[in-house]
Design a protein that fits this description.
Elements: H1 16-25, E1 32-36, E2 39-43, H2 45-48, E3 54-61, E4 68-69, E5 93-97, E6 103-110, E7 115-121, H3 122-125
Antiparallel strand pairs: 1-2, 2-5, 3-4, 3-6, 6-7
Length: 128
């Protein structure tokens, strides 16, 4: 991981200091699974929406440790909406065979190098 970043509250949600309370309070929304077109689509868009205060997000499926890095687009600190998701040239999910995602483990690494982990079962994150 990169070295910890300076933690200054800017009101723009650019650091762990600012995004950690939000992500801690909204932990149940970190991941979602959608059945679509014969696939499980796994979305991490909630975490990506607060990525400016993160160094990385890792996931693991069905009991695997959260060691697979989810590639997020960069933060845009010089724009009016630094956390905007442009999604240019990428999709905001990854695909797995239908019904195969039964459990998801996540590890969130904040830009101060602190970490939070969470586990979710399919039913708790399955979209209607």
């Amino acid at each position: 991981m990169p070295p910890p970043e300076e933690q200054v509250a800017t009101g723009r949600f650019l650091t762990a200091l600012e995004v950690r309370p939000i992500l801690s309070a909204t932990r149940a929304n970190w991941v979602a699974v959608r059945e679509f077109n014969g696939q499980d689509l796994v979305y991490l868009t909630h975490l990506e929406s607060w990525r400016c205060g993160l160094h990385a997000v890792f996931y693991g499926l069905n009991g695997a440790p959260p060691d697979t890095r989810w590639e997020m687009e960069p933060c845009y600190p010089d724009s009016a909406q630094p956390n905007a998701i442009k999604a240019e040239g990428r999709v905001p999910y990854f695909q797995q065979p239908l019904g195969s995602v039964q459990q998801i483990s996540l590890r969130v690494v904040y830009d101060d190098n602190s970490e939070e982990t969470a586990e979710f079962d399919r039913q708790s994150v399955l979209l209607p």
